[in-house]
Amino acid sequence: MPADHTKRSLHQRLVDRVLQGPGEAPSDLRARAFANAELPEALHPLLDKVASSSAQVTDADFAAALEAGFTEDQLFELVVCAAAGESTRQYEAGLAALDGAAQ
Amino acid sequence: MRPGVLDHGYGIGPKLLFRLIRLVSRHPVPDAAKVTFYRPDFYGNHAKKFTQAAMRGPSEWSVGDRELMAAYVSKVNDAPFCIAAHTATSSRAYEDEATVGAVLADLDSAPIGEALKATLRLLGKLTREGTVNADDVRAVLSAGVSRAQVEDALAVGFAFNTTDRLANAFAFEMLSQDGFEAGANYLLKRGYA
Q: Which of A23, A38, A84, B69, CA to CA, is 20 to 30 A from B87?
């Protein structure tokens, strides 16, 4: 029976939309939030916590990013990208392990 | 919620809808639902489609099983809103609050089948450590879980690893126990779409 790839394609559409669709934050910044890499200093505490320890995010993390000139709409987008990025890495690691388990 | 735009940045359509839901259900719209109406073209529309497919689409896992996975992943992510929401939904789906509580308190000793237990262990490790290997998946397969079930569980993991992070970052407001029960009832009747 062929595998059902509906969810994989819905996942890909979500990722493509948040990274490449229209947005307030530049798409290269969204990509860095998604990858949790090379983040501007003012965004690093907020977005790194979203990826690795989201329960630790504080009002001060948002305040610091706003203070640096990022808008609330940009932060909304960048937090979504950081969350989807870490979740995507985990999803792909799981699917790769499933493929590997067939060998 | 934070930033503030997630509390007050809605157009007239969503605002009226929120008011209607509040009138009819006598509960505020949960932040988890509200956030999907914020610029829905950016995130909410795609997220709802994925989550509906993962949680309510065809699967060898029951709805109760998948809601339990959601609660378990949320526990590992320390996301109180999502733990409460999906504990309530899973308990209602199974009509068994005690078993859900036992799983969240101590997976190893919980009175559930080995297949579901092994799958929750895999999701727990993936969520905690960010990765799993082929041997981890082999342990699940040898507990009697099909490959399709592993893939379906990983999709639940994606949905809740994302939602948990948003719940914590955006500071979703906790509901009363009644509010979580009403939310669970809604999610079982209408799903995530």
A: A84
CB atoms within 10 A of CB A36: 18
User: Which domain covers residue A59, as residue numbers?
Assistant: 25-102
Q: How many domains does chain B have?
A: 1
CB–CB contact A66 B43 (8 Å): no
Output the pTM of the full model. 0.97
Q: Which of A92, A88, A10 is nearest to B45 (CA)?
A: A10
The answer to whether the beta carbons of residues B92 and B182 sit under 8 Å apart is: no
Nearest CB to B166 within list A55, A79, A98: A79
- The CATH number given to whatever domain includes residue B73 is 1.20.1290.10
B9: closest chain A residue by CA:
A73
**pLDDT of B47 strictly over 70:** yes
Contact A55 B168 (CB under 8 A): yes
Report pLDDT digits (tens) over A35-89.
Answer: 999 999 999 999 999 999 999 999 999 999 999 999 999 999 999 999 999 999 9
* Phi, psi dihedral angles at B144 (to 5 degrees): 100, 15
Is A58 within a domain?
yes
Residues 6+ apart with CB under 8 A from A9: none
Chain A environment of B131 (Cβ under 8 Å): 89-90, 93, 97
- pLDDT tens-digit profile of B103-139? 999 999 999 999 999 999 999 999 999 999 999 999 9
> What pLDDT does residue A3 have?
62
Domain span including residue B142: 45-190
In a domain, A8, yes or no: no
CA distance A83 to chain B (A): 5
Q: With respect to residue B34, please indicate whether it lies within any of the assigned structural domains.
A: no
| Chain B contact present for A42, CB below 8 A | no
- Under an 8 A CB cutoff, do A93 and B130 touch? yes
ipTM exceeding 0.90? yes
Q: By C-alpha distance, which of B133, B116, B14 is closest to B59? A: B116
Q: Specify the number of domains making up chain A.
A: 1
Identify whether B162 is part of a domain. yes
